[in-house]
Amino acid sequence: MRALLVVNPKATTTSERMRDVLAHALASDLKLDVATTGHRGHAGELARAAARENVDVVIALGGDGTVNEVANGILADGPSPDLPAVAVVPGGSTNVFARALGMPNDPVEATGVLLDALRTGRSRRIGLGMADDRWFLFCAGLGFDADVVARVERRRAEGRKSTHGLYVRSAMRRFYRSGGTRRSGPLTLEEPGREPVRGLCLGIVQNTSPWTFLGDRPVHACPDASFDTGLDLFGLTKMATLPTLRHLRRMLASSGDAPGRAPQGRHVVSLHDCATFTLGADEAVSLQVDGDHLGQHRSVTFRGVPHALRVIV
After folding, report:
1. Nearest 10 degrees: Cα torsion 128, 134, 138, 141
2. Which is nearest to 264 in space by CA: 253, 276, 278?
3. Quick one: 105 exposed, middle or buried, by C-beta within 10 A (0-12, 13-18, 19+)?
4. Which residues on adjacent β-strands are paired with residue 285?
């Protein structure tokens, strides 16, 4: 089986020596080529070339950003049964996608699971989301959460390590920057066949659940989201301190494998299993896709695409 291992050398939880060991282990079972990324978007370029060269599987060794680029490269010309499968060896600080697939968070253990799956032929097809023309694996967002991602990226560019605490502190600063309350947000939700919903402060779009950006602590903004259904949305038309804390407590209220509960209330807007909808704004707001900030946008159309990608699990 021909395979390409795409390595992000800046992956936060793997050393150069560990990456060499993992590559050696994979090469024992695969006809393996190894490519190291050198700039943003490079993983996508490598994956797109691998798809055109009929490689059987592209393995991403890195965080969610690396996996997202690999998926976008493979799907550059749209889904097809002839495209390479995707496999993940988690090496980032959050590894949301790998966790959602049920992979161990430890890179060595994940490599063992991956090799066993390849030997036994285990794989599955999953649905993905699109934000305009950008594919996403598990989550996208417009507004508040994307502002938080942008702040985290700025801190990382300044040399700060990406940690769960950095995300929490960034969210709190963003929330209280406007006095901890906002009565009407800039976003408008438009769904075919329904009246527009105006005044959203944020819109979190999920393709699976939970959203594990806080390490092992799952966040259930859309508990019913699944790789086997369309897209789900969680939105708020008002953000004030006490109601927002209640929503957060509800999203975090999980015990073992029991999921948390979907936030409820008159300021909550939610959608489940949707094929398409649009979030627009009077002025440009931040967009994030799988934890990467993609700049400012005035309108983004989200689509769910079933069975878009084959993954090795």
Report:
1. -130
2. 253
3. middle
4. 297
Instruction: Evaluate if residue 305 carries a pLDDT over 90.
Output: yes
Question: Which residues on neighbouring strands pair with residue 142, listed in sequence order?
Answer: 203, 287
Matching residue, tokens 């996403």 = 136
Encode pLDDT of 198-256 as tens digits: 999 889 999 998 766 555 666 778 889 999 999 999 998 887 655 555 556 566 555 44
Handedness of CA 62, 297, 163, 226 (dihedral sign): negative
In DSSP notation, 84-153 reads PEEEEEE-SSS-HHHHHTT--SSHHHHHHHHHHHHHHT--EEEEEEEETTEEESSEEEEEHHHHHHHHHH
Q: Are strands 134-136 and 124-131 parallel, antiparallel or unpaired?
A: antiparallel
Number of neighbours of residue 249 by Cβ within 10 angstroms: 12
Q: How far apart are CA 298 and CA 291, in angstroms?
A: 19
